[in-house]
Amino acid sequence: MSATKAMIDEFEQEAATTRRVLERVPGDKLAWKPHDKSMSLGTLAMHIAGGPGFISSWAVNDSFTMTGGSSPEAKTTAEILAAHDASVAQTKANITAVGDAGLGKTWEFKTPDGKTMMKMPKAALLRSIALNHIYHHRGQLSVYLRLLDVPVPSIYGPSADERPGGM
Fold first, then answer.
1. How far is Cα 25 from Cα 31, in angstroms, rounded to an integer?
2. The sheet that has 106-110: what strands, in order across it?
């Protein structure tokens, strides 16, 4: 199996889990924050939903220049799920576009004035920043759900609320 096929297969499995978590986001609590310094529930959910597609698009080119901006504020859970579904399709297309031969090519993250802030192989960009970064935030979202007393779905095994397969 090719490296990009393996990455896409893993991502599809993780994306299904991510969607289950995003489905639990209560639309009437999108502005809620666990702390003043925290992202709101809606902003975090949109970051998770759209992040893989946006970040994986960086790997299609040899560099990306950050110009600012942030995740949009979600208005509804349906909007979050639509963003997630579009991002999943975009991520798979981006990984396919990079291809196995492109995974070892160097990618750079630059500031608007041209300074290189990060430099890494495209495989590391996709694995660490586009995928693992989002899985990390999915865990953060599960804590938000718990604090809001929303049942947390099974992620890598049973949760206190869900025991798939009678576990």
1. 11
2. 63-65, 106-110, 116-121
